[in-house]
């Protein structure tokens, strides 16, 4: 059976509709969403309502959490104060636009979903805000999967899709006897674990404007990263018309992050 995993819709209705059409065309009935239904994009209510209409099991993303908790969670990932101000502006706009019914729905979303030895999270098992980047230290990456009790960990948040297999892992432990100067070393071999990042439907940042998601074959374990074209200009126009920061439309039309690192390289989160 094939299973589609989507993430980071970011209130981009055109992209979400295109991905759902691609999934439906392949006859895939099982879909799991890894959160961030809102934020940055211009159609938060429409995207949340489509998730609800399709009854898609969904994790709570960092933006979903922040809309409910009022930016209580630390956003240290902002690379500059200017970027942080734009993020807060988008948060305020989204908060004003979302219906109370849809806010209540976001508040009910779990931080993780589990299906057997598969775990579905937004950022990591530790936090919706932690980035599991593809070049993360292998031991740290393995620890995230192993301690979560999973064989395969599905995540999003980075907006960059990837599949990473963690092979040949081992832990060496030296045990010293309390009544002897002798010590014994033991080595624990760890089985293959895997991290699958679904990328982003609504705000791709992998160098392409195409929306991404993954298809998981539950029979043989294979994973395919899918890219889907959509009407990018439609969303860009809606961003500008809504009065959101125009740079959100610019980066959406280029398919990568835009940040003023040189402008404010000394920025340190004070929260």
How would you describe this structure to a colleague?
By secondary structure, this protein is of the alpha/beta class. It has a single domain (2-264), classed as Metallo-dependent phosphatases (Purple Acid Phosphatase, chain A, domain 2). The protein contains eight helices and eleven strands. The strands form three sheets. A five-stranded mixed sheet has the order 3-4-5-9-6, covered by helices on one side. Strand 3 (112-115) and strand 4 form a beta hairpin. Helix 3 packs across helix 5 and helix 7 packs antiparallel against helix 8 (246-254). The chain is globular. It starts with a strand and ends in a 17-residue tail after the last helix. The model is unreliable at 260-271 (pLDDT under 50).
What Rg do the Cα atoms give?
Answer: 20 Å
Low-confidence region ranges? 260-271
Q: N-to-C SSE series?
A: EHEHHHHEEHEEEEEEEHH
Strand tally is 11
Class in CATH?
A: Alpha Beta
The biggest sheet amounts to: 5 strands, mixed
- How much helical structure, as a percent, in the residues? 25-40%
Structural class: alpha/beta
- What is the typical, i.e. mean, pLDDT? 87
Total helical elements? 8
CATH-defined topology? Purple Acid Phosphatase, chain A, domain 2
Keywords:
8 helices; 4-stranded mixed sheet; 5-stranded mixed sheet; Purple Acid Phosphatase, chain A, domain 2; alpha/beta; 22% strand; 271 residues
What is the structure about, briefly put?
With 271 residues, the protein is an alpha/beta fold. The protein has a single domain, classed as Purple Acid Phosphatase, chain A, domain 2, CATH 3.60.21. It contains 8 helices and 11 strands.
């Amino acid at each position: 059976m094939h299973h589609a995993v989507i993430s980071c819709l970011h209130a981009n209705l055109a992209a979400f509709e295109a991905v759902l059409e691609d999934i439906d065309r392949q006859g895939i009935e099982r879909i799991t969403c890894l959160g961030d239904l809102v934020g940055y994009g211009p159609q938060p209510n429409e995207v949340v309502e489509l998730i609800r209409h399709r009854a898609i099991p969904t994790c709570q993303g960092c933006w979903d959490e922040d809309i409910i908790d009022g930016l209580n969670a630390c956003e240290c990932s902002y690379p500059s104060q200017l970027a942080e101000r734009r993020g807060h502006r988008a948060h305020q706009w989204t908060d004003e636009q979302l219906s109370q019914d849809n806010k209540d729905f976001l508040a009910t979303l779990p931080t993780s979903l589990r299906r057997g030895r598969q775990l579905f999270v937004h950022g990591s098992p530790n936090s919706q805000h932690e980035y599991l980047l593809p070049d993360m230290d292998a031991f740290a990456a393995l620890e995230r999967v192993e301690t979560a009790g999973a064989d395969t960990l599905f995540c999003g948040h980075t907006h960059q899709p990837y599949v990473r297999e963690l092979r040949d892992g081992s832990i060496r432990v030296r045990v010293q006897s309390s009544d002897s100067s002798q010590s014994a070393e033991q080595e624990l071999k760890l089985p293959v674990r895997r991290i699958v990042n679904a990328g982003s439907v609504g705000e791709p940042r992998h160098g392409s404007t195409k929306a991404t998601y993954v298809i998981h074959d539950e029979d043989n374990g294979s994973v395919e990263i899918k890219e889907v074209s959509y009407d990018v200009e439609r969303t860009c126009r809606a961003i500008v018309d809504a009065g959101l920061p125009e740079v959100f439309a610019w980066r959406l039309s280029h398919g990568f992050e835009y940040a003023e690192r040189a402008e404010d390289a000394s920025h340190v989160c004070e929260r």
